[in-house]
C-alpha cells in the first residue's frame, strides 16, 4: 500500500506541474496580446507628436522603431499606427511597413505586414470594396479600396515588387487559426489608391 | 504576372508536418475551434508544386535559393595548389567539370579569386591532352570561343567580371566526360602587424544589386545567367550573380587545398584561420600543408597566416626579375615601429557605420555588433562619435557627432545591441551621410565601416568616396565568411585608410585591437621614392598610400637599368622622415613582372573611378594586359581544341553551376520571403488551457490508477 501512497504523491506532483505549466503558458499568451494592445495606445501618443512635426518619435525610450502612418478601416473600427519596419520585434507592437517596398503614399506598391493573431486579425473580415484610410506624417489622408484577397506562399516575393499603380499590399500569416506560428502561407490583401 | 512557386522545403520538413496536423486536429477537437477551416488550411500548406514532368529518371535536380531549379549541372571539383616563396605566391586552380547528364553540355562557373591576382595562364585539359589558352581582347576572345562552341570543338574561356570575380565557360563536354580547366596566377602576400597572410576566396557571395532593372529587350544577347537583372547602376548584374543552391540540399563544389610554404625564416606560428590543416616540414624548412578533411565545400574564404620567430621579422626585402629587356623589382620596407609612443594623443571624431542588410543576418551581425561594442568602449572623453546603420534605408543614432559621455556611450551600446539585419544594401546613402561632415577643428575624423561589401556597384561607391572624402579617413572592416575583398581593399585605399577582416567571433578582439592601434597611432604620409644615379622608374602604385602602424611599404618598379639605391621620403608624426635602401642582391624571382603589370592595371582602373574616360583607360590597360598576358576587364584567356567532337545533330545545353550560400548566411534574409507575421500567442494560450486541463484530469481520474496495477500483475 506504500506503493499506492507514493503513486498518489507522484500524481499530485504531475497534476500540480501541469497546472503551473498551464498558468505560465496562459500568462505568456496573454502578455503577447496585452503588449500588442498596450503598444498601440503608446503609439497613438507618439503619432500625435509625429503629426506635430517631430521626426522619428520613439513611442517609448528603448524602442527601435517609430510610427510612420495611421491606418483606419471605419467599417471594422480598425485604427492602428503603422511602424517604420516589419521586423519581428516591431510587429509585436504594430503592423510595419516592409522595408524596401514603396514609400507609403508616395506612389508604387507599399507593403504593410502585421500579425495574423493580433493587429492584422481584421484582414480576414475585409471585403472587396472596403475603404481604408492612411494618414501620413504630413497629416495628409490617402484613401484606398480593397480589390483582392488571396493566399500565397511566403517565397512569392513578386508581391512586394513595385507596380505602376499606387497601392497597398497587406500581408499576414495564414491560416488565421493555425496554432503553431511559422507556417509557409500568407494571406495577402491588395488595395488600390482612390481619389476622395 | 506569373506566380511560379518553387518549393524549397527539405524532405525532413514534410515528415514533420503530419505531427503538426495531428496535433492541430486534436487541439481543435478539444477546444471546439473551427475544425474544418483549420484542416483545409493545413492541406493548402501541404501543397508543394513539383516539377516532376521536367525531371528525368536519374538526373540531378537542385532547388535554388535564388529561385528556380538547376537540372543536371556539371559536377564541379576544385583543386588549389599554392607555392609560397618569400613574399610571392604562385597559385594553380584546377576546376574539374564532370558532365553527369546524357546531353552535351556547356558548363559555366562564376567564382572568386583574390582581388590582386595576376591571372596569366589558363589551360584546357582533355584526358592526357593539354590546350594552352591565349590572351585576347575580351570581345575577340568571346567570338573565338563562340565559334568553336558552334563548330562542336572543345573550348574554354576565362573572363574577369570584377577584379575578384571570374567566369569560366567550357563548351562541348560529352555526356559522362570530365574536362579540367587549369588556371594559374601570381600574387604577393599580405604583410601587416608582423604577420604574413594569404587569402583564397571560395565563393562569390550573393550581391545586392541597386538600381532599376533595364528593359529586357536591351542587349539581351550579352545578359548573363545570374539571378539578378542588369540595372542602371549595375549593368552587368546578371554576370556576377551565379545561381545559389538552397542550403537545404547540403553543400556542393568540393575543394582540396595544398600549400607549400617556403617562408625563408623560422616561424613562431603558422595557422589556417578557418580550415584545419595537416602540416609537415621537410629538411629544407618548407612546410607542406593539406586540408585535414581532404575536401571542403566552397562556402567561405580560406586564409593562411604565419608569424616569423622573434627577431626574424624582415625589415626590408627585394625580389627582382629581368623580363623582356627590362628590370622589374618588388620592394618591401618596414617603416620605424613608432616614433614616439608618448606623443600627445590627438582627439578623434569617429563615425561608425554598420551594415544591417539581410546578407549580414546571422553570424556576421554578431561579429559586427561585438566589434562595434569594443570600439565604443575604446573611445576617450574629449572624442566625438556617432553610429550610422544602413540597409534599405540609412539612419543615424545622433543627428551629428556627439561628445563622448557615459550617457551617450550607454545610448550607443543599447542601440548597437539591438541592431537587427534585414533588407537591402543601399550603401551609397550611408557613405554620403558618413562623409558629409568635415572634421571639427583640431580633430582627426575617422569613418569605420563594418560590412561584408556584398554589393554590385563598387565603382560608383569608390567614386563617391574619392569625391567626398575631404579630411576624413575611411577604414573598412570586412565581416563574415566571404567578404568582398575588392570592395574592402579599394574602398580603404580611396578612403586613405586601411582594411581589416573579421571572419569569426573569436577574431573580433584581436583584429579590432590591431585596428585601434592603427587608428590611434601616427602614420607615415606623403611618401615619395627616388632612385639614385638618375634612373627613371615606373613605380606602382603610382600614388603611394599612407602607412599605418605595422604596415610595410610595398612597391613594384620597372626600370630600364638595374637600380642601385632608393631614397624613401615621407612625413612621420608631423616630422620629415627619410631612409635610403641599397638595392643590392635581391632574390631572383620569376613572376615579378606580373605583379608590376597587375598593379599598373589596378592604377589605371582607379583612374577610371576617378573619372578618366573609359576609352583612354581601355587602351592603356589593353597595352599592358596583352604584353604581360594578363586577364583584365578588357582581356580574356581562351583555349580551343582543333578537331570537332560533338556530332552536329546533337544539341549543346548551357548549364550554370550553382554556388553555395556562404557559411553563416540566411537565404531567406538574402533572397527574401514575405514577412513572417504570427505570434505564438495562440499556441501559448492553447498549451496553457491544455496544461490546466491535464492537471485537472490527473486529479480527477486518479482512482483509475488503482485499476492499472491489478491488470498488470494479472498478465
Observed structural traits:
heterodimer; A: 196 residues; alpha+beta; Sortase, Chain: A; eight-stranded mixed sheet; 28% helix; B: 715 residues; Immunoglobulin-like; Rossmann fold; nine-stranded mixed sheet; seven-stranded mixed sheet; 14 helices; 36 strands; 26% helix; globular; disordered C terminus
What does this structure look like?
The complex is a heterodimer of chains A (196) and B (715). With 196 residues, chain A is α+β, with helices and mostly antiparallel strands. Chain A has a single domain (12-17, 22-194), classed as Sortase (Sortase, Chain: A), CATH 2.40.260.10. Chain A is built from two helices and eight strands. Chain A has helices at residues 2-51, 88-91; strands spanning 67-73, 78-83, 96-97, 109-113, 131-136, 141-153, 167-174, 185-194. Chain A has an eight-stranded mixed β-sheet with strand order 2-1-5-6-8-7-4-3, covered by helices on one side. Chain A starts with a helix and ends with a strand. By secondary structure, chain B is of the alpha+beta class. Among the domains of chain B are: 1-49; 70-308 and 630-656, tricorn interacting facor f3 domain (Immunoglobulin-like); 348-520, Rossmann fold (3-Layer(aba) Sandwich), CATH 3.40.50. Chain B contains 14 helices and 36 strands. In chain B, strands 3, 4, 6, 7, 11, 14, 16, 17 and 18 form a nine-stranded mixed β-sheet that branches. In chain B, strands 22, 23, 24, 25, 26, 27 and 28 form a seven-stranded mixed β-sheet that branches. A six-stranded mixed β-sheet of chain B has the order 8-35-9-10-5-36. Chain B is globular and about 105 Å long. Residues 1-57, 216-222 and 711-715 of chain B have low confidence and may be disordered. At the A-B interface, helix 1, helix 2, strand 6, strand 7 and strand 8 of A face helix 1, helix 2, helix 13 and helix 14 of B.
Amino acid at each position: 500500500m506504500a506503493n499506492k501512497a507514493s503513486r498518489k504523491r507522484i500524481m499530485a506532483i504531475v497534476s500540480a506541474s501541469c497546472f503551473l505549466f498551464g498558468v505560465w503558458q496562459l500568462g505568456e499568451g496573454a502578455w503577447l496580446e496585452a503588449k500588442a494592445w498596450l503598444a498601440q495606445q503608446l503609439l497613438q501618443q507618439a503619432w500625435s507628436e509625429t503629426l506635430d512635426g517631430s521626426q522619428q518619435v520613439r513611442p517609448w525610450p528603448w524602442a527601435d522603431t517609430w510610427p510612420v502612418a495611421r491606418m483606419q478601416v471605419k467599417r471594422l473600427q480598425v485604427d492602428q499606427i503603422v511602424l517604420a519596419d516589419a521586423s519581428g520585434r516591431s510587429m509585436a507592437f504594430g503592423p510595419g511597413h516592409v522595408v524596401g517596398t514603396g514609400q507609403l503614399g508616395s506612389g508604387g506598391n507599399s507593403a504593410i505586414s502585421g500579425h495574423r493573431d493580433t493587429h492584422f486579425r481584421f484582414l480576414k473580415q475585409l471585403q472587396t470594396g472596403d475603404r481604408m484610410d492612411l494618414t501620413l506624417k504630413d497629416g495628409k489622408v490617402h484613401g484606398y479600396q480593397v480589390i483582392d484577397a488571396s493566399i500565397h506562399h511566403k517565397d512569392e516575393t513578386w508581391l512586394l515588387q513595385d507596380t505602376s499603380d499606387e497601392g497597398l499590399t497587406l500581408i499576414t500569416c495564414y491560416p488565421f487559426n493555425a496554432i503553431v506560428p511559422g507556417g509557409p502561407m500568407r494571406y495577402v490583401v491588395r488595395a488600390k489608391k482612390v481619389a476622395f | 504576372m506569373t506566380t511560379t512557386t518553387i518549393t524549397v522545403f527539405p524532405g525532413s520538413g514534410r515528415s514533420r508536418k503530419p505531427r503538426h496536423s495531428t496535433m492541430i486536429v486534436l487541439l481543435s477537437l478539444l477546444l471546439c475551434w473551427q475544425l474544418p477551416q483549420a484542416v483545409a488550411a493545413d492541406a493548402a500548406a501541404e501543397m508543394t508544386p513539383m516539377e516532376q514532368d521536367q525531371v528525368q529518371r536519374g538526373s540531378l535536380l537542385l532547388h535554388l535559393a535564388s529561385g528556380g531549379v538547376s537540372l543536371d549541372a556539371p559536377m564541379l571539383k576544385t583543386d588549389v595548389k599554392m607555392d609560397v616563396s618569400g613574399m610571392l605566391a604562385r597559385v594553380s586552380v584546377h576546376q574539374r567539370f564532370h558532365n553527369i547528364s546524357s546531353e552535351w553540355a556547356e558548363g559555366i562557373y562564376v567564382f572568386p579569386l583574390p582581388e590582386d591576382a595576376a591571372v596569366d595562364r589558363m589551360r584546357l585539359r582533355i584526358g592526357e591532352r593539354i590546350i594552352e589558352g591565349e590572351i585576347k581582347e575580351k570581345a575577340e576572345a568571346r567570338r573565338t570561343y563562340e565559334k568553336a562552341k558552334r563548330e562542336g570543338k572543345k573550348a574554354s574561356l576565362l573572363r574577369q567580371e570584377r577584379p575578384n570575380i571570374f567566369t569560366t565557360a567550357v563548351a562541348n563536354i560529352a555526356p559522362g566526360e570530365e574536362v579540367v580547366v587549369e588556371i594559374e596566377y601570381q600574387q604577393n602576400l599580405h604583410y601587416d602587424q608582423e604577420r604574413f597572410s594569404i587569402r583564397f576566396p571560395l565563393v562569390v557571395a550573393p550581391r545586392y544589386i541597386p538600381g532599376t532593372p533595364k528593359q529586357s529587350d536591351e542587349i539581351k544577347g550579352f545578359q548573363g545567367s545570374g539571378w539578378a537583372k542588369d540595372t542602371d547602376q549595375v549593368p552587368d548584374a546578371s554576370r556576377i550573380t551565379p545561381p545559389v543552391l538552397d542550403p537545404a540540399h547540403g553543400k556542393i563544389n568540393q575543394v582540396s587545398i595544398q600549400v607549400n610554404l617556403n617562408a625563408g625564416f623560422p616561424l613562431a606560428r603558422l595557422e589556417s584561420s578557418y580550415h584545419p590543416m595537416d602540416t609537415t616540414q621537410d629538411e629544407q624548412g618548407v612546410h607542406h600543408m593539406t586540408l585535414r578533411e581532404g575536401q571542403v565545400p566552397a562556402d567561405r574564404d580560406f586564409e593562411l597566416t604565419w608569424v616569423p620567430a622573434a627577431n626574424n621579422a624582415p625589415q626590408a626585402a627585394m625580389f627582382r626579375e629581368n623580363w623582356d629587356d627590362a628590370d622589374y623589382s618588388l620592394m618591401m620596407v618596414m617603416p620605424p615601429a613608432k616614433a614616439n609612443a608618448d606623443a600627445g594623443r590627438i582627439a578623434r571624431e569617429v563615425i561608425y557605420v554598420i551594415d544591417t542588410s539581410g546578407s549580414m543576418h546571422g553570424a556576421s551581425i554578431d561579429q559586427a555588433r561585438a566589434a562595434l561594442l569594443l570600439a565604443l568602449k575604446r573611445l576617450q572623453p574629449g572624442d566625438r562619435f556617432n553610429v550610422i546603420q544602413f540597409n534599405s534605408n540609412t539612419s543615424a543614432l545622433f543627428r551629428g557627432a556627439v561628445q563622448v559621455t557615459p550617457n551617450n556611450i550607454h545610448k550607443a551600446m543599447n542601440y548597437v545591441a539591438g541592431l537587427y539585419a534585414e533588407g537591402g544594401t543601399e550603401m551609397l546613402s550611408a557613405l554620403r551621410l558618413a562623409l558629409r561632415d568635415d572634421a571639427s577643428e583640431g580633430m582627426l575624423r575617422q569613418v569605420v565601416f563594418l560590412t561584408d561589401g556584398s554589393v554590385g556597384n563598387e565603382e560608383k561607391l569608390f567614386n563617391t568616396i574619392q569625391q567626398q572624402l575631404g579630411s576624413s579617413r575611411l577604414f573598412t572592416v570586412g565581416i563574415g565568411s566571404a567578404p568582398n575583398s575588392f570592395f574592402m581593399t579599394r574602398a580603404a585605399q580611396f578612403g586613405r585608410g586601411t582594411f581589416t577582416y573579421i571572419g569569426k567571433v573569436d577574431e573580433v578582439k584581436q583584429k579590432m585591437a590591431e585596428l585601434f592601434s592603427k587608428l590611434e597611432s601616427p602614420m607615415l604620409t606623403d611618401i615619395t621614392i627616388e632612385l639614385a644615379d638618375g634612373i627613371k622608374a615606373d613605380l606602382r602604385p603610382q600614388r603611394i598610400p599612407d602607412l599605418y602602424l605595422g604596415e610595410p611599404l610595398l612597391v613594384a618598379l620597372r626600370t630600364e637599368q638595374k637600380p642601385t639605391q632608393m631614397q624613401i621620403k615621407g612625413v612621420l608624426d608631423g616630422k620629415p622622415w627619410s631612409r635610403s635602401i641599397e638595392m643590392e642582391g635581391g632574390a631572383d624571382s620569376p613572376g615579378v613582372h606580373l605583379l608590376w603589370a597587375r598593379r599598373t592595371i589596378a592604377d589605371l582602373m582607379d583612374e577610371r573611378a576617378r573619372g578618366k574616360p573609359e576609352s583612354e583607360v581601355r587602351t592603356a590597360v589593353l597595352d599592358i594586359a596583352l604584353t604581360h598576358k594578363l586577364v583584365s576587364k578588357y582581356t580574356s584567356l581562351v583555349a580551343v581544341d582543333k578537331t570537332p567532337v560533338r556530332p552536329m545533330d546533337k544539341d549543346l545545353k548551357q548549364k550554370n553551376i550553382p554556388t553555395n550560400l556562404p557559411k553563416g548566411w540566411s537565404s531567406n534574409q538574402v533572397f527574401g520571403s514575405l514577412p513572417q507575421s504570427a505570434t505564438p500567442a495562440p499556441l501559448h494560450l492553447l498549451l496553457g488551457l491544455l496544461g490546466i486541463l491535464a492537471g485537472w484530469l490527473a486529479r480527477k481520474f486518479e482512482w483509475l490508477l488503482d485499476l492499472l496495477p491489478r491488470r498488470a500483475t494479472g498478465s
